[in-house]
Every structure is written in C-alpha cells, then in structure tokens.
What does this fold into?
Amino acid sequence: MKNLLLLLISTAYIAFIFYYQSIQWLPVWTLYLLVITNLLSFIFYGMDKLAAIKCWQRTPEKHFYCLALLSGWPASILGQIVFNHKTTKVSFRRWFYFMSLINLTTVVGYLSYWLNY
It folds into this structure.
C-alpha cells in the first residue's frame, strides 16, 4: 500500500511538471533535467543492486540524495520497488524522503511564485 501511494505521488509530480512545461510556465531545460535525472536515478539503483549482489564497489548514498534533490526521486522510488533495493535502511530512507521533500517544496514554491506574479 505504501509503495502504491509513493508511485501515485511520483506520477502526479511528473504529470505536474509536464503540464506546466507544456503551457510554457517552465523552461524546456527543466523537462530535460527531469528526464536525465530520472533515467540516471533508475539506472543507479539497478547498478547498485547488481554491485551489492556481486560484491563490487557500491554507489555512494550521497549520489542518490543529489539525484533526489534534482528531481530524480520519482524514478528512484520506482527503482527501489523494481530492484527491491534500499528499502529497509531507515537512515537512507529518511534522508531520501527529506531530499525529495525539499525538491517538491522548491518546485511548488517556484511555480506558485510565478503563477501569482
């Protein structure tokens, strides 16, 4: 149930960004940023899961946090679910949700400022 809620929030966020970009409220680079960070996030989760299984060098957690802060958190949630990776480490999840919340607050604050301007 928790995963379904997270996927719905992620989908709504992506739809929100695409909608505001389509009506010219956001510059086109924001769409590129969204696509690139989400692709990287999903790939990083897959690579880190493989590295964990094979005992290879792992991706530092700060990279996951940076991607979440740069709007990559929707695909990060999908990557966590698909690869069943980083789902039980509480300290990681706290910081991940915190970075995601900062990103969400920043984007919504930016849009609300420009819509009222």
The chain has a mean pLDDT of 89. The two ends are 39 Å apart (CA to CA).
